[in-house]
Amino acid sequence: MGGDAGSKVLRLFSFLGAGVICTSAINLYRDIERKKLTQKQIAEEIVEKGNMVNKATA
Q: What pTM did the predictor assign?
């Protein structure tokens, strides 16, 4: 358990910082994927509504 307290604290803060960065990157990726899926669902609903209008007028 050698080493000075300063290097241990520095390693602790480095580890915590890496955890924060990774967590924020994961959350950002999830947000992007959720927005992409939402936009895809909206586009599909628009197409379905267009098909329903075409069937109703035919």
A: 0.67
